[in-house]
Amino acid sequence: MSPVEIVTDILFAGMAGLTGFFAARLGGEIWSRMILKSAAAVRARAKLKRCAPLIPAFEQRRAKLRIALAQSETRRRAVERQIDQFQSKLEELQQRDDEMIRIVGRKRPGCRLFKAVMVNRHVQAAIREGRPHGLLDGSWARAQHVEIWAQNLPEAKASLDSRFPVSLGFILIEMIEPEEASGATAKGSGAAA
Questions:
Q1: What residues contact residue 103 under an 8 Å CB cut-off, 6+ apart?
Q2: pTM of the shown model
Q3: Staple partner for 141: which of 100, 101, 127, 173, CB 3.0–4.6 Å?
Q4: What's the CA gap between 76 and 89, in Å, rounded?
Q5: For residues 92 and 115, what is the distance between their CA atoms, to the nearest angstrom?
Q6: How far apart are CA 49 and CA 57, in angstroms?
Q7: What does the longest C-alpha to C-alpha distance in the chain come to?
Q8: Which residues contact 118 (CB under 8 A, 6 or more apart)?
Q9: Using CA atoms, how far apart are residues 187 and 158, in angstroms rounded to an integer?
Q10: Cα separation of 11 and 136, whole Å?
């Protein structure tokens, strides 16, 4: 093959490629215009035109919902923390279930609430020896809380001594005298041992 024929073939191939490119481009343009002028495309453009104002409204709604979701999540976490606190407090109270507050006397006008902490030496000795006490519960080996309704400290000590005598091993560890009259904290009346 001569060089002239090679150059001619290359020119014909280039012209054919260029013609094909323009034909494809022209065909694509005609096809896209046919699609854009079709009834479905006209309806779609009209629908988009009607819906365009809704886009900012939906964006605002989405922003408000995100804020509401964040606030709800914050409240949910706070509630979870409260639940955890209540559960730990409940577990603590269940562990302290054997603690009992004994009440001596009853609420009367002019009476104040004195608080005492007591143990029983006989029960402590029995527990140390590994045997139960014949009359009292083993909880008396630990400090027990007693609330006494009385008009003054001597009357409170006398009521406490008559209810829990030293001769039976009851020892007063601490007596707390109220700073002022406290009548609103009574939970019941009577005495329990």
A1: 146, 147, 148, 149, 187, 188, 189, 190, 191, 192
A2: 0.43
A3: 127
A4: 20
A5: 22
A6: 15
A7: 138
A8: 143, 144, 146, 160, 164, 170, 171, 172, 173
A9: 22
A10: 120
**With contact defined as beta carbons under 8 Å apart, do 115 and 187 qualify?**
no
Structure tokens at 127: 């527990």
- Cβ atoms within 10 Å of 75's Cβ, excluding its own: 10
| DSSP annotation of 128 | H
Q: Which two tokens stand for residue 191?
A: 């005495």
pLDDT in tens, 31-84: 888 888 888 888 888 888 888 888 888 999 999 999 999 999 999 999 999 999
Distance CA 33, CA 104 (A): 100
Residues 140-176 have pLDDT tens digits of 888 888 999 999 999 999 999 999 999 999 999 999 8
- At 35, the amino acid letter reads I
